[in-house]
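haha ok so turns out i had the wrong file open the whole time. this is the CORRECT one, sorry everyone. sequence first:
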Amino acid sequence: MEIVCSIPGFTGLKDGLIASTGLNTKKEVVYAKHFQHPSFTLSLRPFCIPHDMPAIYSWAWKLSRAANTVAASYLYAGSSDFARSFMVLVNNRVAICQVDICAADKDELYDAYPTSTGDYIIRILMNTKRKTIRPLHLKALQTCMEYFFMFPEIRQIIAEPEAENKVFNEILLKAGFQFEEQVYNQYAVCNLFVCTRQSFLPD
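then structure:
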């Protein structure tokens, strides 16, 4: 059994994801979901650079080598009119993953894969060093997807994990993403997955 509590931003759903979260203070929860047996809450809030960067560096230590560049990218996303970054927390205290969502026509993937209005790209950084899926990470992704699909302008969500990242690929499949094709960027071979409102598998 679960109890869902959704709290869109001040302007509400009609103004869209980017506009509504852009008006929130950086530590304000925009969506929360309570689970029972065991009892815990997953909450979603906009990324806060001073508060959240230490967590990012502890998950991906290579990013700390380019601290200023990474911080600038989060600042840019937070002030843009096409992208947002969020943190997912357990019981509003422990960060479990960081999520970026961006309009597909503004993303670098646009050059390699045909997209249309309503397509958004999602990228996730997880707080895990394990090579197996933790149910909590799957629930975190599902919670994010539920929140994003509340906004009518989001038609489908695209993910582009590296092909060798087996854990991320498996989590996407369990959440209802469907494999489309492999794409190649300057860094690696990636699997391209698409999730629609119809294919999405909530918890």
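The domain at 2-196 is CATH 3.40.630.30 (Aminopeptidase).
again sry for the mixup
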